[in-house]
Amino acid sequence: MTNKALIIGSSGVVGSALAERLLAEGWQVHGVSRGRTPGVPGVQQISADLTSSDVAGALAGVDPTHVFITAWSRQANEEENIRVNGAMVRNVLDAVGPAGTVQHVALVTGLKHYLGPFEAYGKGAVPVTPFREEQGRQDVANFYYEQEDRVFDAARQYGFTWSVHRPHTIIGFAIGNAMNMGQTLAVYATLCKHTGQPFVFPGSRQQWEGLADMTDARLLAKQLLWASTSDAGRNEDFNVVNGDVFRWQWLWPKLADYFGVEAAPLPAETSPLEARMQYAPALWREIAQQHGLAEPDVTRLASWWHTDADLGRPMEVITDMTKSRKAGFLEYQSTPEAFFDLFERLKRERLIP
Hints:
The chain is of the alpha/beta class. It folds into 2 domains: 4-167, Rossmann fold, CATH 3.40.50; 173-213 and 245-318 and 333-349, NAD(P)-binding Rossmann-like Domain (Rossmann fold), CATH 3.40.50.720. Helices cover 40% and strands 12% of the residues. Helix 1 crosses helix 8 (217-229) and helix 3 (78-96) runs parallel beside helix 5. It starts with a strand and ends in a 5-residue tail after the last helix. 47% of the residues are buried. The model has no long low-confidence stretch (mean pLDDT 94).
């Protein structure tokens, strides 16, 4: 029987990379999104409000063998994040579970499992790095835990297996994505080049000097495919990062060189992007007109707040991959090459000059 995927968040940075991977492997792919961004060609797109209990109507007849949950909805506080995002998972699985076709559900969360939610980002008793799956949950409200619990409940009720995947900051291609450092830095560097301003690191000294790692969306897609079709991936949680480590003080000049801009020394005070980008919307429209770019709305390409949150963390953040490597997932991706591959695609798609 042909594998049939249902990707929740199919136009996002993870969902689109996963859709491309599954289609290349011969899967049938249905994708659910909010319908605001074109989906991957070949995906049967479904527009649905996952917070509504009427999800079953939108998903009637899909009957997937595998469900991949790669989306979340940002709310005003963690209490609302828990309520809304937990309901989304529950609504989807209650819609597709009763048919009995679902074999596996994969949930993508992230390192806020260890760091805590945005409201208390890295402010609690953060586990010792590198983060390992055995460290478990923090004693704090976190919508990731709610999403996991809704998957676990549905797995018991409907008899499928599950996997949970925890990437670090994701590098990948997507338009209108709320969390996209790669594209954000590409837009920032383009603005710096256009104005002749130096490329200033917007984060903390701890991030600048400490070790870091990241996750290419294409590598995450490979792990999702592996876990959903491998005995070793069933009913397990996995970290997922590229496999290399770096320091931003080493990588930042390489990104600057790619765009032909000056990499500034680390400023004495943290210099967040969100506070410096009030001029960006008007300037980006000017750049888009000058170079014939496809997207003049900078807010659909860059997410200043998220990049500030990741690069502003007051501690080193690195991730252990031992568990999935011992289980058989051995893929690797160079992080600098992940950035450069993304930048080249942004150029091909006429999203940056």
